[in-house]
């Protein structure tokens, strides 16, 4: 049994309140970007090259899914107490139950990210090149699995564009966040012109990657210290996955609620 209109409006407000709260983060985001901008010129060439690899991999992900693509067949594991065979079966699951599935998924991914960050942090600068694409892959995989929990198919190119915009949202400052929220609201628009606007915006791969680099990269510099990098790596990766999962949950649940309200 799906929710009443009043229940849906109550749940929608939770996501909208979360979006408003994001504006309070701008000060810390700006502070966080300064060190990496200052240290950028001193960043080793191999690390700069790794940023270039991420650029290519993100482009490949949106075009074809590449090696980061999640399988929709995993949907049964997210709803073990329900008879779900495909994404259409998810349509009748209450939002609160979807939220519970995502919360459980997020908890598992944060544990995995902690272990991954610690293991790649042991070697400091030498294992950092392994960790950056691994972290990006985990964030993309987490967002795709959240999409599946809310009944969306990450195999669709539209969903891959949406997911990269969520990744960019988390990495952006408050001005960027407002612009991206507007773009995300157009993704399901019947207006083909609006959809093309979102598609054209996503072509700026370099912008997506460099905002990602500013947000994650400066923190990774602390991970260059051997042994101590273990602690930094564990904390950084856990918080990065937590941030992306929170944004994915709030934005996808809002999208699903609005669809139900218009049905």
Q: What is the typical, i.e. mean, pLDDT?
A: 78
The number of helices is 12
Instruction: Give the N-terminus to C-terminus distance in angstroms.
Output: 15 Å
The radius of gyration computed from the alpha-carbon positions, rounded to a whole number of angstroms, is 18 Å
Briefly note the structural class of the backbone: mainly alpha
Helix-residue proportion: over 70%
- Strand percent estimate: under 5%
Helix and strand sequence = HHHHHHHHHHHH
Based on Cα principal axes, name the global outline.
Answer: globular
Major pleated sheet: none
Strands, total number: 0
Poorly predicted tracts of residues: 31-36
- What oligomeric state is this? single chain
In terms of topology, how is this protein built?
Layout: H1 5-21, H2 26-39, H3 45-64, H4 75-78, H5 87-90, H6 95-121, H7 125-149, H8 157-171, H9 174-185, H10 192-202, H11 205-221, H12 228-262
Question: In words, what does this structure look like?
Answer:
α1 packs antiparallel against α12 and α2 packs across α11. The protein has 263 residues and is mostly helical. The longest helix is centred in the C-terminal third of the chain and has 35 residues.
């Amino acid at each position: 049994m799906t929710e009443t209109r009043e229940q849906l409006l109550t749940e929608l407000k939770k996501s909208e309140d979360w979006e408003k709260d994001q504006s309070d983060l701008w000060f810390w985001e700006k502070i966080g970007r300064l060190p990496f901008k200052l240290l950028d010129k001193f960043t080793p060439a191999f690390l700069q090259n790794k940023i270039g690899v991420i650029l290519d991999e993100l482009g490949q992900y949106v075009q074809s899914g590449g090696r980061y693509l999640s399988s929709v067949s995993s949907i049964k594991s997210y709803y073990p107490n329900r008879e779900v065979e495909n994404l259409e079966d998810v349509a009748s699951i209450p939002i609160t139950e979807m939220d519970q599935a995502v919360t459980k998924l997020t908890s598992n991914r944060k544990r995995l990210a902690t272990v991954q960050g610690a293991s790649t942090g042991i070697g400091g600068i030498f294992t950092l090149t392994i960790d950056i694409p691994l972290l990006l892959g985990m964030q993309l995989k987490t967002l795709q699995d959240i999409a599946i929990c809310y009944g969306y198919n990450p195999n669709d190119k539209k969903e891959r564009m949406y997911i990269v915009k969520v990744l960019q949202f988390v990495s952006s400052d408050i001005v960027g966040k407002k612009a991206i929220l507007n773009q995300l609201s157009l993704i399901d628009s019947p207006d083909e012109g609006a959809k093309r606007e979102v598609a054209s915006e996503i072509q700026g791969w370099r912008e997506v990657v460099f905002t990602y680099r500013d947000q994650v990269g400066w923190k990774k510099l602390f991970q260059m210290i051997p042994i101590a990098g273990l602690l930094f790596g564990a904390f950084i990766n856990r918080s990065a996955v937590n941030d992306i999962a929170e944004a994915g949950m709030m934005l996808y649940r809002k999208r699903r609620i609005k669809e139900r309200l218009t049905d």
